[in-house]
Amino acid sequence: MAALLNRILRRRDQCTVSYSRFGVPGDVADDRPPPTSIVIEAFDDNDPDFIFMRICHAQKAAVASAGLGMSFVILLFISTFLEFDWDLYRKDLDALAIVFLFLFLLFGLIVHYDVIVGVKKQSPKHLIPFIVVYSLLIGSETVFAM
C-alpha cells in the first residue's frame, strides 16, 4: 500500500492540466486566442427523445407519476391510520406511531410536490429531494431483501 501511495505521489506532477484559456493569474499562458463566439443549437422540445413511451411528453409523465405518488402516500397514510389496532399497544407506542405516520405523510407530500414545482418552474434543484429519497428507499430495500 505504501509503494502504491509513493508512486501516486511521485507521478502527481506529470498529470496536471490547466483548463484556463483566459489568463487567470498563476495559470500557464495559452498561445491560442480566446473564442469569440459560442454557437448553441436550437432546443427542440418536441424531439422524440422527450416523448415518454410514444404517449406523452416527459414533463407530463413526471407530473402524472408525482400525482400518483402523492395519491399513494395519502392512501397508505389513511389505510394505516384506520387499520392500526390502537387498543393492543401502550399509549407511548401509539403516540410514536402517530408521529411517524404524520411525518411519513408530510415528507411524502413535500417530496412529490417538489417534483411538480420543479417541472413547472423548469428547475432541477427541486428534483434533488425526490432523487435522494427514492435512491435511499431503493438502496434500503435492496439491502433488506438480501
UniProtKB/TrEMBL annotation:
Q: Sorted alphabetically, which keywords does the UniProt record give?
A: Membrane, Transmembrane, Transmembrane helix
Keyword Transmembrane helix attributed? yes
Q: What is this protein called?
A: Protein YIPF6
Q: Which residues cross the membrane?
A: 61-82, 94-115, 127-145
